[in-house]
Amino acid sequence: MRVPRAVASIALAALFTLPGIFAAVTHAELSPPVTAALAGIAVLGAAFLLLWACDAAQKDVSQSLALAVVALIAVLPEYAVDMYFTWQAGKFPEGDYAQYAIANMTGANRLIIGVAWAVVVIIFWFKTRRSVVMEEERRLEVRFLAAATLYALFIPIKGSLAWYDGVVLIGLYVWYMVLAAKRPQGECEVDGPGGCIAALPRARRRAVTIVMFVFAAATVVLNAERFCEGLVGTGKAFGISEFLLVQWLAPLASEAPEFVVAIMFALRARAGLALGSLLSAKLNQWTLLVGMIPAVFALSHGAIDHPIPMGGFQMQEILLTAAQSVLAVVLLATLRLSLGQALLLFGLFAGQLVAPAAVDSLAGGTVFGLHGEQMHSVFSFLYLIAAIALIVDQPRRLAGLLPWRRPSHDAGSDSVCAHCGAPGARDAPVPVPRAGT
Question: Is the full-model pTM beyond 0.70?
């Protein structure tokens, strides 16, 4: 991207934040839809600024810092929304905030796999007629995602999300970061506005990066509450399910930049890099985001032994999200995702999204005695059956998840970028998949 275009992109993203910032600072009394729109656009602009600042920061931070701090800052918008709902749930445990926190978390996790992963593979297939193959180094993320998913399956079984669940999930993420920090780190080619900032002289680059970080973070903090309350108010005003608005619209606003960057990589035939970054995002949210919910609730509520209140529907949401993750782990155990597998992920996602409303709209509101909200249990079963069928058909898939397996490395692919997973010396060659893999 040329410098004028990069500057224009940064200026446009910053411009998007200004109406939301002004409304937040002046405490403007606006209708819920306008409040949600202004705050959502501000969060979207801030998310792009954070993403570009993170790209540029790779030039000035150590390997471990790039892995830990930069990766966390990039997902600040999503965390801010979910932690606001969780904090309010602790203050008002009898209200609906707890279900909003679960809705936002489950929606963000399912969107990454059901939409973002699938779209990357579909775009890459139409450009190259090939499946997406990730670097061998990404096996670490797949293994930790498998461990987190296995643990998450026990949450709906025991019927609570308690403080010790947070300890386990956050512990898994910390363990992953420790191991990931030991991987060799190479130079990463940064494109777009982030690349233009990275090309600046050191002093100017650091100043611009810090200003973007502070400005974007302040924007997110200022607008998180207004965005959340605006979504809830919009649902109540128009008779739309607030749960669905929080579950699907909020994650789209906060994660759109990451999705856009992944799609751009896929369009440039670098889908392995795109899918690898989305895999890291899924692992981050499935461990750290879920693990922080009981911790933030306990701080707000003032009682560590009181789990966040959830009913049977919220447990079904967590089970469905965990079941989707089981299928995703089994598919990625070979570090390869084909067009058919991507369509399976997208089809099941679309089905679980549409089926509840479709069933409720039927005369009697049931299918085979099942109500709309019970369709989530059906799709949880379908995800798990699909995963089991893949394992039965190809048992060696599980070998890729075993921690004692010694993976082979292609020459030149040992060094990877800490932030995006790109090979250091050059792009890793796309292996030609063999039959049956």
Answer: yes
